[in-house]
Amino acid sequence: MTTTELQRTVTDAGPGAAGPLGEPRATSAETGPRRPSLSPSRAADFRTCPLLYRFRTIDRLPEKKSRAAVRGTLVHTVLERLYDLPPDGRTVAAAQELVAPAWAELSQEPGVAELFAGEAAGDLEGWLASAGTLVETYFRVEDPTRIRPEGREELVEVTLPDGLLLRGFVDRVDVARNGALRVVDYKTGGMPREAFEGKALFQMKFYALVLWRTRGVVAAQLKLIYLKDGDVLTYAPDEAELLRFERTLKAIWAAIAQAVQTGDFRPNKNRLCGWCDHQALCPSFGGTPPPFPAEAAAAAGWRTALPVTVV
Predict the structure, then answer these.
(1) What is the C-alpha separation between 130 and 117, in angstroms, rounded?
(2) Can you tell me the distance from the alpha carbon of 39 to that of 68, in angstroms, rounded to the nearest whole number?
(3) Which residues are registered as beta bridge partners of 232?
(4) Measuring CA to CA, how many Å separate 243 from each of 65, 183, 210, 232?
């Protein structure tokens, strides 16, 4: 696993182990966005708190890793590699055997080993066992011997007619013999209450829109698998709904562009603030944000009306 893969650890971070997903994980020249783009997680960031979006996307301020987030990365890696095995070899025991080597790689990433510094070996073993339990729960939900994924951890992207670039990584894409499309995402947290299902499906509709625009096929099923409790949330979008969702994304992007133009990213105090690493810089908590990095924004391809220092 590479450092860019570790960026997946934003998955399942936060209350109930739920957090922004599908973020394009690479920032390197090899795989990074060619120009400013919108991903499900960054769109969710802006909707939650524009200042959080700025800190993560424009300032790129570092954030601490958490055990829950790293466990999410570990479980996703195991489930991805499970489908490297032949169908009859995709057993619970085989999946459990994938945990240790995946952890051996993940633990080499910056900031991961420190999460367990000074801890007794039994604590780490218990944490790894909890990841194994989530992997085992997966087998109660699906029979991997019967599934032939077309794509895993697949980058999907499309440029809309107005120039907006949408990008994200999908956990799994299945295509039936009749061409029906299923989009699958794994969550290591529990299923959200009904009132929050819309937020959970936001990411999946994003993927469905990109796949529809690139393949011309509306996904027959969007499937969220919650490994904490073995629950499944499914949804079947239609073209009209995806068109409405596309308009929503365009409106979000227009608001982001306006904020970049002016450097005005307002904080939005909400129930997720307790999980934010940037409270010391947030006006809602008495902090002062650093000056807007107009140079960094311009270098990343943003148009800004703010003065840019040319060196």
Answers:
(1) 19
(2) 22
(3) 225
(4) 36, 18, 11, 25
Domains of the chain are 1-33+60-246 (3.90.320)
How many Å separate Cα 231 from the centre of its chain? 20
The first and second tokens of residue 15, run together, are 């209350």
CA separation, residue 228 to residues 49, 74, 76, 102, 192 (Å) = 27, 14, 13, 20, 11
Closest of 56, 31, 32 to residue 42, by C-alpha? 56
pLDDT at 120: 52
Report the distance separating Cα 23 and Cα 9, nearest Å.
10
Q: Which residue has the tokens 């299945």?
A: 174
Which residues partner with 168 through β-bridges? Answer: 156
Query: CA dihedral in degrees (240, 246, 252, 254; nearest 10)?
Result: -120
Short-list 306, 296, 299, CA closest to 54 = 296
pLDDT digits 0-9 by tens, 182-203: 999 999 999 887 656 788 899 9
Alpha-carbon distance 91 to 136, whole Å? 9
Q: Is 107 exposed, middle or buried (0-12, 13-18, 19+ CB in 10 A)?
A: middle
